[in-house]
Amino acid sequence: MIQYSLGIYLHTPFCVKKCSYCDFYSITDRRLIGPYVDALKREIQRAECLGQVDTVYWGGGTPSMLPAATVAEVMDVLAARFEILPDAEISLEANPGTVDLAYLKELKRIGVNRLNLGVQSFNDQDLSFLGRIHNAEEAVKAIDLARQAGFENLGIDLIYGLPGQTPLDLEHQIGAAAALAVEHISCYLLTLEPATPLARLVAQGTVALPDETQASQLMVAMAELLAAAGYHRYEISNFAREERYICRHNRRYWTMAPYLGFGPAAHSFVPPRRYWNLSSVSDYIEAVTDGSGPVAGSETLTREQRILEAVYLDLRLIEGIDLTAFESVFQVTVQDLFGPHWAGLLAENILEINNGWLRLTEKGLLLADAVPLYLDI
């Protein structure tokens, strides 16, 4: 049996309320938390142990809705089933308004060593528009509480591209984050997801988001402001103050490294197979309880799919594609894959080669989703 260096993702599908823009699977019925936790532990206990674990990531939803004692119980089950390395990155997502000092201290005590706070904005009007449960003051307080609890690896999420937002507004957001000296900042462009309340408002003409040109201007401003504040961009939307603060778990996704997902709607990837769980808490609980298993579907990636995903994901990373390693794995050069488009992408300063690595230029980063469309596979 092949042994891997593994990441583990734990999906916590509960929120105090649904945000207007979010399409991640979550519910607000807290009565299912107990049965969900029982099923989660049982799913982990039945999992095949494929290797040592160097990252664990609690995502959601809102994992900080779980009592710290529950997080500890699940971590104990994980440790009994898998070998979690001593220096493993253990991350948990939390929302301001759902944590206090005692809770955060307990998370730290049980081994969570990286906290990611869903701040989204330091502007109360923005937070109200997004449907968040906290205000800007509570966001700052949550960061302060995390520091008091002893967290030295603290990340926050910010959203940009809100209606009417300008580079000056963004400067306030970045300035507020930098002043708090968090180690990691993820900045995501607000995107419309089908069937969300925000998508319906835009379709009705009630809300207007920045157009493509305005969004690009905001993206450039965001990157420049973060660089000036001392944050290193290592992925299109992710910035760290130092290399040691790069989110190791998320990097697994971008480099197509193996990971196992547990919980409703969680995905797993053990090359070349990807599989995913039922996207319903009640169905998930029933499937785990009756022994039928929670997997809803799977796919085995073809060579062509793996090439496409490798190019797309590697180019999201600022370092880009290791051309020698890519050719060794796939027995084809990236130049051949881009075919007649290769010279133009270089000449138009969308792609560049540096010391054997192919990467997107600053201009190319604005077109990241479109570049893989030029592949001939």
Textual characterization of the structure:
By secondary structure, this protein is α/β, with parallel strands linked by helices. It has 15 helices and 15 strands. The chain folds into two domains: 4-254, TIM Barrel (Alpha-Beta Barrel); 318-374, Arc Repressor Mutant, subunit A (Orthogonal Bundle), CATH 1.10.10. It has helices at 33-46, 68-81, 101-109, 124-130, 136-148, 167-179, 197-204, 212-228, 248-254, 281-289, 303-316, 323-330, 334-338, 342-347, 362-365, and strands at residues 4-12, 51-60, 83-94, 114-120, 154-160, 184-189, 232-235, 238-240, 259-262, 267-270, 273-277, 295-300, 321-322, 351-354, 357-360. α6 (167-179) runs parallel beside α8. The protein is globular. The chain starts with a strand and ends in a 12-residue tail after the last helix.
Q: CATH superfamily name of the largest domain?
A: Aldolase class I
Strand content: 15-25%
Instruction: Write down the CATH topology of the largest domain.
Output: TIM Barrel
Mean pLDDT: 94
Order of helices and strands: EHEHEHEHHEHEHHEEHEEEHEHEHHHEEH
Q: What spatial order of strands do you see in the largest sheet?
A: 7-8-6-5-4-3-2-1-9
Output the structural class: alpha/beta
**Please, what is the oligomeric state?**
single chain
| Total discrete domains | 2
Biggest β-sheet, characterized? 9 strands, mixed
Q: What is the CA-atom radius of gyration, in angstroms?
A: 21 Å
Notable features of this structure?
15 strands, alpha/beta, TIM Barrel, three-stranded antiparallel β-sheet, 377 residues, Arc Repressor Mutant, subunit A
